[in-house]
Amino acid sequence: MRLKELYRCIACASLVAPTLVFAQQQPEIEEVVVTGSLIRGTPVDAALPVEVYNAEDLKLSGSPSALEFAKSLSISGATTGESHYFGGAGLTGSVSYNLRGIGSDKTLSLFNGRRVTQNTSVIPSIALARTEILKDGAAVTYGADATGGVVNFISRDSFDGVEIQSSYKAIDGSDGDYSFGIIGGFGGPTTDVILAAQWEHRSRLDAKDRPFTDLSYGENPAPWSTLTNLAGYLPRGPLPANPVYNPASSNGAGDWGNPIGGVLSDFTQDSCEAVGGVYRDSFTCLYNYIPYYNVVSDNDIYRLYGQVKTEVNDRMDFYVRAAYSMVDTPYQYGSPSQPVIRGPAIHGGATYQLHVPMNNPYAAEFAQRTGWVNSPLFGLTSGFTPITYRAFAHGGLDTFAEDGKYSTPSKIRNKFAHLATGFEGEFESGITYDIAATYNHSILYADSPDMMLYRVQEALNGFGGANCNVPDLDPNRFGTQNPALAGSAGCSWYNPFATNFAQQPVYGLANPNYVPGSENPDELIEWLFNPRAAEDTNWNVTFDAVFSGETPLELPGGIVAWAAGAQWRKTENTEAVTDPLYNGSQPCQWPETEGQVPRDPTDPLYNGCTPDRPGPFQFFGTNPADKTWQDQTSVFGELSLPVLDNVYLSAAARYEEFSGGLDSTVYKVSGQWSITDNMSVRGSYGTNYQAPGAGVIPGEVTNGTNSFTIAGGNWRGAQTVTRSDIQPEEATVWSSGFIWQSEGLTAGSDFRFIIDYFNIETENELGLLASANQVASAVFSIPPAGSTTVPTNGSALADCSHPLAGRIVFNGSCVQGVTTANDFAQVRTDYGNGPGQLTAGFDIQTTYGMPAFSGDLTFSANATKVNKFRYTETVLDGYQIDPGANRLGFLNFATIANAISEWRGNITANYAQGDHNFRLTAQYIKGVKDDRYFNADGSRVGDAALTPAGRQPGTTTPFGPSLYGVYGEDWISMDFHYTLDLVRWDATLNASIVNIADEMPPESRQELGYDPRIGNPLGRTFEVGLTKRF
C-alpha cells in the first residue's frame, strides 16, 4: 500500500503544470497530488492555482540550481542568493523565494508538506520528484508565513539502483561552477529506502572582471565613498587638560583643543588621481570600493539525505526522512575596512574622532609635505585630527585575504538538519489520519570584521599591539598617557597617512606619496580588528495531526468530505557571542576601566557613551547574546462541497495562538466550475496572517548600517528600536481564473490556456515603520544655495526643526542653513507594524503541443503581469513620510521587497525525437526605474540630484549628471539545452548554452552596477552534465 500524503488536494497536472509535456505523452488527463488542501481525494480539478515542476522536465532545462530556478519563475520577485554584501553578506548562497514580490518572509517553504527553513539551497534536489508552487494565500492550511504562497518540495517515493550526476559550467573570468551527486535506493513490497549525497561549488568571480562593475565615478557614483584613508586634517593647539563634552561645538575642540589652522590635505589632486581616486575637495579623495568585492563568492553546498517508507500493516504506513546540509562561504569580501561613523572622542559623530600627536614618528613627514612646518603656529601644534577617516581604502588590505585579494572578508557557514517522521493511514471507519513530528535545526556562523577605534587611537599615541602594557600617567584622559615609553616596551605606532601604502593593488596604481618602511605591520593591524563573530542557533519542533473523512451529507455532486486537525509548534532562537568586545560586555568605545559608561548626554558626567551602548567598533554595533522562544498552537478544519457534478466548493478555517497572548483566526473559500469539457473557471478568497517571530524582542536596540541616497550613497549608521506594541500582520488574498484545454488545430495536438487574476492586500506589516533612508531624506530636504532641487551628493541642507530631526545623530549640533547631508553619523528608526502592501495582476500560462517530423514539438509561455503594487502611508512619530505611492515598475531601493517589474515571463520551444531533446527558452523581465530619482508625479528629478560632486580627472571641471540605471533596462536572455539519452550505457548527457547573446544584466545605480536580486552577472556560460544509472 502506498498512502498519499495529506495536506494536499487532487488536481489535474496537465492543467496546472507550466513545464512541457510532449503531445503524444498526454492522451488523457491524469490526476496527481498537489499542494493546497487538507482533504485527500477531493476532486477539485485545479480549483487552486498551482504550478508543478517535475524533476525529469527540469533536467531538460539543464538541471538549474536552486538560485537559477527561483530567479526564473515569473511569479518571483527579488530573490536572494547571489553574492551581495550590501544586501546581507549572510545571504550568499541562501535562496529564499519571494512569491509575488511582497517579501520572502511571506512565502512558506515546505519539504514533503512539512515546514522547512527559508534557505531552500539546503533541499536535496537530487532526491526530488517535483516542486509544487501554490500561488495563493495558504495560512488557513499551513499557518503563518504563507500570504504570498507556498513552495513545496516533494521527494521521490522510491528509487531502485544507483544514479550519479555531475555537471560543469564554464564561466569567463572564473574557474567555473560544478556539482556532483549520487543517489541510491532499494526496496521490496512493503519498504523503500533512499540515500543521497550532493556537492555544489561556485567559484570566485572578481568584480573587476565584469564591465558593469568596473565603471568610472562619472558613470556610476554608487560605489564611490567620500570616507577614505586619504583625508584632510586640522592642526590642533594644546590639548585641554580635561576633555569635555560640548554639544555646541562641531569641530572636536572639547577633545583635541582648538584648531590653529586650515585643512591640511594628505593628498593633491594629482596624487589622489594617481591611485584611482576622484578629487572633490581638500579633505575628500573619493575611492571606489567595488574592485575589492566579488560578483560571485566561493561557495560550497553539501547535502545528505535519507528516507525510509514502510508499510506497518494494511492500514498504516510509517516514514522517516532526514536531511543535513551545509552552505559554506569562506570568503565574502567587503571593503578593506569600514569608515568611521563613531569613535573614541567624547563629542560623538563621524568627524574629528582621532588625534595624531606630534610625537608620532609619521607626523613630521606629513607636516613637512603639507608645508605646516613653515607656519608660525607650528611650534604650538599638539597634533592633527582627520575630518573624516577610513583606515584602509585606496591601498587595500591583504592581512586577512586570500592570495590575489586585497580586502577584509567575512565568513559565513550555515548548517541545517531536518527530521520528519510519522504515521499515515486509514481506520476501518474510512477516516484517514496523518500524525507527524518535524524537527528543524539550523546553525548560522557569521563574522563581519570591524576595527576598534579606541585601539587605533592608542596606536596613534604609540601604544598599539597585543603585547603593549605600560603604566598610564594621566587618568583624566582616555587611553595610555606615557610619552616617554611610546613606541617601546612591546608597543607600536600606527601610521594613518598616505605614506603607508605602496599602490592601489587591484590595478597596480603606484602611490606617489609612499615612503618605504612606513607600512603598518600585520601584527598591529590584526590587533586593531575584531572578527565580530556570532553563532545563531534556531530550532523548531512541530507536532501535528490531521484527520479526514466523509460526512453523511450528500450533495448533487457527491458526498461532503471533511478534514480537521491540530498543530503545536515550538521555536527557539539562541545567539551565542562569546567575544566580550562584540557581545556588549564593553558597551562604550573605551573599556570601563577607563571610566567610560553609558549616560544620557544631558548628564553632567557624560563623557561620550550614549545609553544605546554603541560599543567599541567604528562602524558596526555590538550584538548582545540572547535567547528567545515562541509557542504556537492551532486548530483547523476544512469542508469539501461537491455542489454539482461540475461545481465544487471548499471552505476552511484556522485558529492559532502565539506566546505573548497573540492570536489570529483566518478562513478561506475556494471553488471551481467546469462549464464545459474544455472550459472551467475557478476562484478563492481568504484571510492570512503573520505573527512576530521568536527573535522579535520588544525594546531591543540594533545598531546596523545603511546606504543613504541623500548622502551620495555613503554608508552610515542605522539604528533600529523594536516597539513593544507589535501585533500580527493581516492580509486578504483572492484570485479568480479561467482554464481552457482542447485539441489543437491539427490531429494529435493539444492546446491549453490558463489565466488567473490575483489580489493581495496586507495591513500592519511587520517591519520598519520607515526606513533609515526615508528618515534621512525627510530631514535633509532643503536645496543648497543656487539649487532649485534637492541634490543627492551630500550637499542637501538639514531642516533642523523637522519632527524627525531628533532621530539623526549629527556630527556636532544641527545648524540651520549650514548642516548638510555629509554631516551626520547615524539615523534611528523603529521596527513594528508598518505600512501595508497591495498587489494585483494576472498569471498567464499556455502550452501547444503537436507531432512534428517524427517527434513532438511543444511551445509554451508562462508570464506574470502585475497591474498594481502600492504601499500604504508611511508614518513615524506622527509625521507622514510617504502618503502611499505606486511602486510598480520601480527599483524600490528603500523597501524590503525591492524591484517590482510589470512583466516577467518565459517562452519555451521544445522538440523531442527519439533519444534527442532540444529546448530553446527565452526569459523576459521588464526594466524598472530607480524611484530615488523620480518625483511623485512621475517626472524625473532635476540634473542636480544626479550630478556627483567632484572634479573630472586632470581638470577642475565638475562632473555632469549621470543617468546610469535611472530609467532601467529590460532583461532578455535566451538559453539552449540539448539532452541525449545514451540508452546503451543507461546514461544521459546534457549540454547547455545559457545567455546565448552574452547579455550583461540591466544597469542599476547600485554598488555592483546591477541588481543581484534580479539580474544574472555571469554573461554567456557553457554547461555539460552527465547522469549515469547503475
UniProtKB/TrEMBL annotation:
Q: Which UniProt keywords apply?
A: Cell outer membrane, Membrane, Receptor, Signal, TonB box
Domain of life where this protein originates: Bacteria
A Pfam cross-reference name: Plug
- Residue limits of the TonB-dependent receptor-like beta-barrel domain? 517-972
All copies of the TonB-dependent receptor plug domain together span 45-150
Leader peptide range in chain numbering: 1-23
Q: Which GO terms describe its cellular component?
A: cell outer membrane
* Compartments where found: Cell outer membrane
The record's similarity note reads: Belongs to the TonB-dependent receptor family.
Q: Per its record, how is this protein called by name?
A: TonB-dependent receptor
